[in-house]
Amino acid sequence: MKKNQKSVFEKRLERHHDELRWLYMELYQNDSMFYELCSQMNRFYTERSSALKKRDQEKEKHPDWFKNRDMLGMMLYMDNFAGGIKGVEEKLDYIEDCQVNCVHLMPFLDVTPGKSDGGYAVKDFRKVRPDLGTMEDLSDLTRECHKRGINVCMDFVMNHTSEDHEWALRARQGDGEYMSRYFFYDNPEIPREYEKYVPQVFPTTAPGNFTYLPDTGHFVMTTFYPYQWDLNYRNPRVFNEMMYNFLYFANLGMDIIRIDAVPYIWKELGTPCRNLPKVHTIVRMMRMIGEIVCPSTLLLGEVVMEPEKVVPYFGTVEKPECHMLYNVTTMATIWHSLAVQDTRLLRRQLDTVAALPKEYTFLNYLRCHDDIGWGLDFDFLKGQGMEEVAHKRFLNEFYQGNYPGSESRGELYNDDPVTRDARFCGTTASMCGVESAGFEQNEEKMESAIRLDIMLHAYMLSQSGIPMIYSGDEIGQVNDYSYKEDPMKAADSRYIHRGAFHWELAARRTDASTVEGRIFQGLNRLERVRKEHAVFDADARVSTRETGQPHVMCIVREKDGKRMLGAFNFSLDDAVISPFPGGKAVDMISGKKLEMGELDVPAHDFVWALSE
Fold first, then answer.
1. Residue pair 414/371 in contact by the 8 Å Cβ criterion
2. What pLDDT is stored for residue 1 in this prediction?
3. I need a surface site. Which of 60, 289, 408, 558 has the fewest CB within 10 A?
4. Residues 367, 337: Cα–Cα separation, whole Å
5. Which candidate in 302, 342, 411, 492 is catalytic?
6. Three-state SS at 107
7. What would the mean pLDDT of 501-516 be, rounded to a whole number?
8. Which of 108, 141, 106 lies closest to 123, judged by CA?
């Protein structure tokens, strides 16, 4: 048995060895550290359970398994969702009821309360937060998920550690070996040189990219928050140890590992320290290490840029890097399109994505755990008379509900009082008007808000890639303002959409007379239709169609002689379009016959039509 196991490992290692060694030596020129890495890879392979090895073999036979049209993800914080790891396991029936087969467990590793950045300042990579459970509980959860056909995703924060991580504590005590794992400087000269080129991530709440430590007399690089110390990947010990953490999580049963803040991983003086070539070297090596030890574990990259600019993080067909990436800017553009009632930028972005190789897979979503940053294509928008600063202010005012015609509710994040450049926070339902309609007890507005909510989800499900729902969106959960009463959270408005899941509201999902039931059942219908029709396959031909009305977006998906048209009205007015003069089709939701020569698309509504 051991001989067979070893031969499988050796065969995979042989396939990648030369390239892996060449890239490693290019960065580190250190043979002994490379051989240590290979030895540890062998150890993690040997320790991998027989069930996970079987899973590896099955998924190696179907390497595109994650591109199936039945893929549907859900992001959730385990404490908010069900109290902890055991609670999530007890709620897997509900997750299946949502038709979800990929659950993204938001950060769950040990952190320092009050200095966690929502879980992204990890204190111990081998310990779960005590209030959530244990690593054994996590392993039990992944096994149960796998039995039910549910994939599990986690965040891997490899750009930085908490200042309370063991390495940071030793560095703070002056241990040179551990100081070399970060960026320490005993005078401000080099930090000042970095600051000339490196943009600030949080200029209001955490200005600058370095933090001075009076007790050590040193500056340390902290790109995000002062308690998050950037790791120095120029040190091979950092790379090796973080790869061992990666493999440890893979052996716990993680199917998808989300690499947090990928573009920031490699730093060089005199550069913006973003998207540098050696970042790709590291991700490529990580991809190969996974394919050698745990080929069923995929890499999801968090790269916050326009679709065409994130493409390098897929690598090439011959030398792939991430298996999938977030479609971040499309999310922001959807909300922009709704506010301005104009889909021209959205159409441009979808055309860009549609022109990319079918091997590239994006995760699509309307909302996530983070804020909405208005990183729009302002070069394009200038042609429509929209200047960056003024337009960002408009969007923030609109979604706070301070603009005529807006029913949205939410709050700003990192509001800069000087530039007034801020990001926005709020749940999907609150941004669609469910919260304000409920407050006013206005059934007409509620009907409109629910229709808009479902329309936006229909648009998301029409895109190529993997749709992701943020927990609570499936029942129209609104903003939770109670975070302001918690001293640990009050300063971070992102907690407005990270509220506790309301199970008493979820219990109403089978009642079509309730808000929760109307949204839940509406989304379920969309998800079932998506699973049933090959036009939603990843290899379907996707294009857009001109409607002559910029507020109506039309997507065309074609496969095996079938053509599906999705028409989405982003305006407050009903529309009539003529997508295919003389054509006949059937409404994929209601089953009604449609005349494509004159198609009605009501305000904030949509049509999914399948040609006959």
1. yes
2. 45
3. 60
4. 15
5. 302
6. coil
7. 97
8. 108
**Rounded mean pLDDT, 545-561:** 94
Cα 589 to Cα 607: distance, rounded to the nearest angstrom: 8
Using the predicted structure, report yes or no on whether residue 508 has a pLDDT greater than 90.
Answer: yes
d(CA 54, CA 47): 13
- Report the alpha-carbon distance of residue 280 to residue 141 in Å, rounded: 32
C-beta of residue 535 within 8 angstroms of C-beta of residue 557: yes
The pairing of strands 324-326 and 361-365 is: parallel
Nearest to 427 by CA among 396, 399, 448: 399
Options 56, 164, 260, 473, the catalytic residue: 260
> Is 260 an annotated catalytic residue?
yes
**Averaged pLDDT, 112-125:** 94
Residue 5 is predicted with a pLDDT of 52
Residue 499 in 3-state DSSP?
coil
Determine the average pLDDT of the residues in 20-29. 98
Neighbour-count burial for 275-284, b at 16+ CB within 10 Å, e otherwise: bbebbbbbbb
**How far apart are alpha carbons 115 and 5 in whole angstroms?**
43
Residue 311 CB neighbours (<10 A): 17
Instruction: Report the run of H or E that residue 125 belongs to, with start and end.
Output: strand 124-128
Q: What is the DSSP letter of 314?
A: G
Residue 478, phi-psi category: left (phi > 0), alpha (psi -120 to 50), beta (remainder): beta
Q: What whole-number distance in Å separates Cα of residue 479 and Cα of residue 339?
A: 19
Least confident of 131-140, 180-189, 324-333, 473-482: 324-333
